[in-house]
Structure formats: C-alpha cells, structure tokens
Amino acid sequence: MTDLRGHLLIAMPGLLDPNFYRSVVLIVRHDTDGAMGVILNRPLEVTIKDAWAKVDGGTCTNTSKLHAGGPCPGPLLALHDGRRIIGERIIDGLHYSIEADDIRKIIEENVQPSRFFVGNAGWSPNQLESEIGTASWLTCPATETVAFADIRQEQMWIMFTRIATMRAITPNLSHRFFPADPQLN
Questions:
Q1: What domains can you pick out in the chain, each with its CATH number?
Q2: Residue 22's beta-bridge partner residues?
Q3: What is the value of pTM for the model shown?
Q4: Which residues, 6+ apart, have CB-to-CB distance to 144 below 8 Å?
Q5: Dihedral sign, Cα of residue 4, residue 6, residue 7, residue 11
C-alpha cells in the first residue's frame, strides 16, 4: 500500500458520483484502516463566523467560507500550518485538527492560514486503491499552499487535472524520440 497522505485526488471526468464530480480531495490520513480526505473545492455559502455563532457563540472574526469536506459525517476539521497548534501532520507546513479545543483556539485566535471543513471523504481499507486502479482518480503530491489557495471551485479542478495529467505522461516522454528540429516532426 502506498501512503497517499499529503496527496491530492483529482476526480476523473468519468467519475459521475455527485459527491465527487470534478472534485479535488486532499488526503489527510491513509493507513491500513482506510483513508480520509477533504474536498478542497466545495465552499459553502455560510461563513466560519456565522457557523461558529450557531455552534459555540464565542468570538470569531473569520469571514472565510466553510467548506463541504465530503459526504461522510464527522467533526469540524481545520487545516492549518501547525505553527501555533500541532494537530496531525499531513506534510511539512500542513496539519489538521479535529479536537474541539484545537478548533476553538484556531477560531478564537483567528489562526491563519486555516480552512474549515464540515464532513469528510472516507474510504474503507483498499477501497481508495481500487478506485485509483479503475481510473476514477488522478493523484499528485500536495503542497501546503494548495490547501489554502483561493481558487474558484471549477478552476481548481481544471488546473489540477492538467498538472496530474502532465505528471503522469512526462516520465514516458524521452528526448530520444524528439527530432533535432521539431519543425520536421
């Protein structure tokens, strides 16, 4: 099993499941128990500030959008850089937290960068590997900046589809097959 934590899953055009159609998913955990991720390109209309007022009533100045992390219910999840709150490491410079005390601190102290998700995407053992094997997903490594990028929902999918496709085909391109003068091609 290849550990895909810290990788992006980019839904292939043929993946018609409405939960994942044209989605970009960041894998935050992947082990023998399965995998968990959050959909990066599904912002909701509600802000963190509005949601927090209904949940906790405490101080919140974060007017960023809350994101739909996926179809599986779960606790509120925050992505952050791990400098002020440790949480669980995904990759260097990118951590996640689901503990109530961590979430409260991130919100009340307006820790930046951060992004919040309600729900998540989950896979049972070997399910994700099977889906990748049937060409439902492209994969590529994530960076800490991707998780916080303010890219429109559709544009994010298009951009990462191109990146993942180029990463997949580039190793098969060899300079040996290029003519010295490309005009002769």
A1: 7-167 (3.40.1740.10)
A2: none
A3: 0.88
A4: 81, 91, 92, 93, 94
A5: positive
